[in-house]
Each structure stands twice: as C-alpha cells, then as structure tokens.
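Reopening this one. Same input as before:
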Amino acid sequence: MADQISVVGTVILMMIVDFKKMAVEFKKFFGLDSTQMFPALSIAENKLCQADAHFEFNVIPDAEWTCKNSVQAYYKHCKNRHEICIKESVYDKARNGDRGALYSIAHEISHWGLINYFNINLGVQEFEQLDPVSRVVLMNIHENIADLLTSLLVFSEEELLNAQSAGDLDFSSCMSKDQVSLALFYCQNHQILTENFINKIVPQFMAQNKQTELQRRIG
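Same output, byte for byte:
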C-alpha cells in the first residue's frame, strides 16, 4: 500500500514540478550551464561548503561504515547540520572517475538541493514524529524525485531519449533499472502530465472548491 501511495505521490509531483527546468537551475546555481558535465565530487567537496555554512562532506572509513553494503553514501539533514557521508572505498572510486560512485554523490547533492535550495522537504523536518507508513511513503517519494533530478543533472533529457531510441540503455554502472525507467517515463510524459494537471486536475479542484463553498452557504 505504501509503495502504491508513493508512486501516486511521485506522479503528482511530476505534474506540478518541472524537473527539467529544475536541473538547469540547479546547475546554474553551481556556475554551470545546461550542457556542462555535473562535477559531483568537486561540488560536494568545495562548492556546497561555500554555499551552505551548515554543510559537511565526510568520508567514512569502510571499517566504520554502519550502513548496509548496498548504501554507498547518504544525506543527513538536521537543523544545524547538512551532511553527506560517503564510504571511503566509494570516495576513492569517485576520485578515479568511477561513474557509479560519482552518480551516488550527485544523488546526495540532489537531496541537499531538494530540501535546502528548492524547499521541497516533504515533511523532513517532522520525519521523526510521523507514523511508520507515512515515513515510508515520504521517504520513497523523496528518493524517487532525487533519482529523477540526479538523472537530469548527470544526463540530459536528449541523452536519455536518444539512448532509448538507439536501444542503448546501458546505464547500469550508475543507475538501476527502476531509476532508468523513472527518468524515461518523465522525459517521455512530462509535457502530457503538466497539460493534464492544468487542463483537468486544476479545473476539477476549482469546481470542487466552488461546490464546497456553495454547500457552506446553503447550509
């Protein structure tokens, strides 16, 4: 049930948020134009520290890494501490240009951006007070939109669509199948999703509000 709600929540956000435009704006924030590569390691080590006085980038020795092996890095948001932690062996790979390691860092930068730059926090501030199902739903939605933003930072929309047209979807070194599917779904449908929101959902919402107001007056 939580997974289904998360999917619906993600699609609703796709309707009302222009993630393609968001990726361009986020690159611009770091002094990049839309066609430039996204230098995730340099941004995490230097530019984010300059942009956010509460930001820390910490490399954790493998022997002290307490997360499960599949987790290569994580973002932790507290009131006065915005922290990206990365496993030392993954950090070393990133320094050597490994695409998967760099993508992991970019993903955590996306989490930072969603919360601190775009103010899409999805209840992060109150996370500990939420019930377990709500936590899972919000966590999944936040992961989905961080995946989507990251894919559009690292790859352009054109790259993703052209790769699909050519039958070349070998992003396995940095993206899972679910992440690729999400990015392609957005690239193929974001205009339709936006049009549906403007032309169908908003009028329905307005009509419902008018009906509610009329009912209130009658009552």
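So the earlier flakiness isn't reproducible anymore. For the record, The mean pLDDT is 83.
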